[in-house]
Q: What sequence folds into this?
């Protein structure tokens, strides 16, 4: 068997068998399951407590039925009861049968005004629902006082028609953009997470081999370049397996919970069919980003003599990833900024920024091709340069961890 | 298959680690490579292995350069011991052996043989970090010889081993030599070199200060050691003609003299002074030669 494959398999198998890897995979799967089942958890706890009850003290007696009707039309998630007066409501509250009460008074024009008293006023869902219901009641009464006809009232309340139409033919509609934003956000996070985590894993692997001095034996039987790429590909396979597992678990669980997630009304999750193009670009940019940063990580890892120095040495790489991610999150809100556009051509940022643009906007093909070309070119350059540094670096031991070492490593060849 | 080192120099920036080194080692020979710390031994080994490129000169083995295509024929025990601490001995050795072109099943069989031979068969499934330093050393040695290399480079193979294990290892490498392996090894322990090598080279600051066959080196050194045990005070011998160094011992004195001739007047002089229990002229030890040559160069 080719030495490349021996190292490739060895890297993959020892990593996948490592306890730390298994434990972190399980933790991540639990998190994925937790996130996709979030709506269930929320419902579960809510159902247990049962709906809250709110007392309404309506001194005039004329508003309560209308309010109750309005609340049930709104599908409010609490019940209301009528209380004789405030003292009665207070004693109910003290017994714990209700969680708050609403005092309704009539003003000079016979219109209602309300005061909501509750033990906790941090939960605004109840109070705002009460308020809007009361608003409706007031509106109906006020219009009745004006002797308007039913049709007049209806036309008054009809919401204005307001559509957003993009001028460009292919531009995404606001709704589409929102859906894209959710998916792009998730994939951006996956790119960020995988580049950072697996890049670190490679740097750590190289640094550990160097620290444990196994490197010298390895380097005498396999060329450093072959070694470096076998490792990068081995960890790539590992990351693909791990991410595929997360996706399968996440997707299966997501599908199962689709109905209850819809009910929560979070726009994020409202994509019915996965847009294939976005997923494709996501995988493409994640892969390219991985290879870019993995090469960088491998050669930076080869420069340190002690694992303790590793974080310091790969610091600049981590910063690049974090800056790229921050820009991308910033760009999610306004992907058309020319600043984002310019940055998306810089290879260290393009895995995230160009993906963001391609996922959110309709940009000319040449831009995508150009940025992918630049990215691949940088990967190749970095690989050639990195391999040279790696070759010298793995034999270099010393306390320093500065970038002078790159020069020193190169002079070893 | 001869290992030839032709006029090899290596610079690291301004620093010259090895200065025009030349020697050749025939097949089936054990060659001792000595030198103080920083003498350029490890750099030379790395150049032989092709890990470093000589600045000038060339290194040929069997008439060709050593590169990754010859790696199955080469064994290397680096000075800084290193194995994967978290891997089991079995996985570790099999992995390293496969990288040297060995088949997995054969590597396992050979590993069993060597663990038995080094009297540690129970380590097969242990993690390296659980072993003592000396036992890790044995595993490391196995990693360097398991594929029956034709050229074996051992950088300080005996460090950290107790006398029993030193003996086991000596037997093992002598056997390899007899089967046709060329062995280059470095050591700080002169007695090991004296025992095992026919030819040697003492390096100092990148240059060979002593080179050749062991017997020849000793003979040409000229100086002899004289050990005398007597009941009376021998310290007056310090000023005797032909005496270069004198060191009192518990039972008498140990002298370094310019040659055998210088011993005669000493003997004449002391027989009249009292009873002499021992009077012996010894060949200089490699240790003496090393200290003399390297020490002199330090001064």
A:
């Amino acid at each position: 068997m080719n030495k490349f494959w021996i190292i490739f398999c060895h890297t993959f198998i020892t990593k996948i068998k490592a306890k730390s890897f298994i434990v972190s995979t399980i933790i991540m799967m639990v998190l994925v399951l937790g996130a996709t089942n979030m709506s269930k958890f929320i419902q579960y706890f809510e159902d247990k407590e049962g709906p809250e009850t709110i007392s309404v003290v309506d001194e005039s007696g004329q508003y309560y039925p209308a309010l109750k009707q309005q609340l049930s039309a709104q599908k409010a998630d609490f019940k209301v009861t009528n209380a004789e007066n405030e003292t009665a409501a207070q004693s109910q509250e003290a017994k714990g049968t209700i969680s708050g009460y609403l005092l309704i008074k009539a003003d000079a024009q016979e219109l209602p005004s309300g005061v909501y008293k509750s033990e906790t006023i941090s939960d605004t869902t109840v109070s705002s629902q009460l308020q809007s219901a009361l608003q409706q009641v007031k509106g109906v009464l006020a219009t009745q006082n004006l002797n308007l006809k039913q049709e007049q009232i209806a036309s008054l309340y009809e919401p204005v028609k307001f559509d957003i139409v993009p001028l460009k033919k292919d531009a995404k509609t606001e709704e589409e953009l929102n859906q894209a934003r959710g998916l792009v956000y998730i994939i951006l996070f996956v790119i960020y997470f995988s580049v950072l985590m697996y890049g670190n894993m490679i740097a750590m692997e190289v640094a550990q081999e160097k620290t444990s001095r196994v490197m010298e034996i390895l380097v005498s039987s396999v060329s450093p370049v072959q070694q470096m790429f076998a490792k990068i590909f081995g960890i790539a396979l590992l990351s693909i397996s791990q991410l595929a597992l997360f996706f399968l678990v996440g997707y299966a669980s997501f599908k199962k919970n689709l109905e209850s997630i819809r009910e929560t009304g979070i726009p994020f999750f409202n994509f019915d069919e996965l847009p294939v193009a976005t997923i494709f670009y996501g995988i493409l940019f994640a892969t390219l980003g991985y290879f870019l940063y993995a090469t960088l990580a491998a050669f930076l890892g080869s420069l340190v003599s002690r694992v303790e120095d590793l974080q310091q040495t790969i610091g600049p790489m981590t910063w690049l990833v974090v800056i790229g991610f921050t820009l991308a999150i910033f760009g999610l809100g306004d992907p058309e900024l020319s600043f984002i556009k310019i940055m998306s051509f810089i290879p260290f940022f393009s895995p995230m920024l160009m993906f963001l643009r391609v996922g959110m906007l309709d940009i000319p093909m040449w831009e995508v091709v150009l940025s992918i070309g630049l990215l691949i070119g940088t990967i190749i350059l970095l690989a050639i340069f990195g391999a040279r540094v790696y070759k010298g670096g793995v034999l270099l031991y010393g306390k320093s961890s500065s970038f002078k070492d790159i020069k020193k490593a190169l002079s070893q060849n | 298959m001869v290992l030839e080192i032709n006029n090899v120099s290596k610079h690291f920036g301004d620093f010259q680690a090895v200065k025009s080194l030349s020697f050749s080692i025939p097949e089936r020979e054990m060659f001792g490579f000595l030198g103080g710390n920083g003498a350029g031994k490890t750099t030379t080994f790395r150049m032989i292995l092709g890990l470093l490129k000589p600045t000038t000169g060339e290194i040929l083995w069997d008439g060709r350069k050593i590169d990754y295509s010859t790696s199955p024929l080469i064994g290397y025990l680096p000075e800084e011991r290193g194995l994967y601490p978290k891997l089991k001995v079995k996985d570790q050795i099999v992995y390293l052996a496969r990288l040297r072109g060995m088949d997995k099943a054969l590597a396992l069989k050979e590993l069993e043989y060597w663990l038995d031979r080094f009297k540690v068969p129970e380590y097969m499934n242990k993690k390296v970090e659980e072993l003592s330093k000396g036992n890790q050393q044995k595993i490391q040695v196995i990693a360097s010889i398991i594929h029956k290399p034709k050229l074996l480079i051992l950088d300080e193979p005996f460090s950290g081993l107790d006398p029993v294990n030193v003996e086991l290892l000596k037997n093992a490498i002598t056997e390899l030599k007899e089967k046709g392996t060329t062995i280059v090894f470095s050591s700080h322990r002169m007695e090991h070199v004296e025992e095992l090598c026919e030819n040697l080279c003492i390096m100092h600051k990148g240059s060979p200060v002593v080179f050749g066959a062991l017997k020849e080196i000793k003979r040409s050194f000229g100086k002899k050691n004289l050990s005398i045990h007597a009941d009376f005070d021998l310290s007056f011998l310090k000023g005797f003609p032909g005496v270069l160094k004198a060191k009192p011992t518990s039972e008498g004195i140990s002298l370094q003299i310019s040659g055998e001739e210088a011993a005669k007047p000493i003997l004449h002089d002391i027989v009249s002074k009292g009873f002499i229990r021992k009077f012996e002229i010894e060949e200089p030890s490699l240790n003496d030669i090393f200290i003399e040559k390297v020490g002199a160069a330090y001064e």
In short: The interface with chain A takes residues 12-13, 46, 49, 51-53, 68, 71, 74, 76, 78, 80-87, 91, 95-96, 98-100, 143-144 of chain B (CB under 8 Å).
